[in-house]
């Protein structure tokens, strides 16, 4: 719950979304960049498709927040 409601995490999600929007030319490139920055890997085709669908329904701020709250970001494998 901490990651979902913490003002610092929400602010970092907004900063990440702004960075993605300024650094990449289109949504697929932004999703790839997000995965590279956050997970140090490229997204699978399924992850790319789901991300683009989610972004179309919400916003880049929400998507960035979702990535920062993910298990893959929070835990080392």
Question: Can you put this structure into words, describing what you see?
Answer:
It is globular and about 30 Å long. It has 77 residues and is mostly helical. The longest helix has 17 residues, at 7-23. The chain has 6 helices and no strands.
Query: Runs with pLDDT <50, length 5+?
Result: none
Distance between the termini: 21 Å
Helix content estimate: over 70%
- Number of helices in the DSSP assignment: 6
Categorize the overall geometry: globular
Order of helices and strands: HHHHHH
Main beta sheet, described? none
SSE topology:
Layout: H1 2-5, H2 7-23, H3 27-39, H4 45-57, H5 60-68, H6 71-74
Helix pairs in contact: 2-3, 2-5
Provide a short characterization of the protein structure.
The protein has 77 residues and is mainly α. Helix content is 78%, strand content 0%. The chain has helices spanning 2-5, 7-23, 27-39, 45-57, 60-68, 71-74.
What labels describe this entry?
single chain, 77 residues, mainly alpha, 6 helices
